[in-house]
Write a structure and sequence with these properties.
single chain; about 130 residues; alpha+beta; 5-stranded mixed beta sheet; about 20% strand; globular; SCP2 sterol-binding domain-containing protein; SCP2_sterol-bd_dom; SCP2_sterol-bd_dom_sf
Length: about 130
Amino acid sequence: MSLKNDSFPSSEAFDLIKASLTDEKERTSAIKKGGAIFAFTLTNPKNETETWYIDLKSGGSVGKGLGPDGKKADIVLSLSDENFAKLIEGKANAQKLFMSGKLKVKGDIMKASKAETILKAAQNKKAKL
């Protein structure tokens, strides 16, 4: 089942991340590097919001909402759909977006810095397509 929402073009990245985590080796490595549940709340030009999670704490799952099976995200990253697309494409830096107020973080800021590692998995998967 696709996680893409047509109102949020960059949401296709969550399908790519999910696909990269189907590989046992990549999933184990991502969980080791991530160690948290990351939630991404995106806002589109119509000011609608949608949230997706990446569980790199235990299961290596990806889905819609703040976390899997009622679990709570350790880190919630809020940004525009456009800036999320730029992050996925490697055209933006999370730290610069944060410093300019375009990326808001709730939760453990140190763990939030690991989010870029996860997003690189989507970049690599997209590059292979």
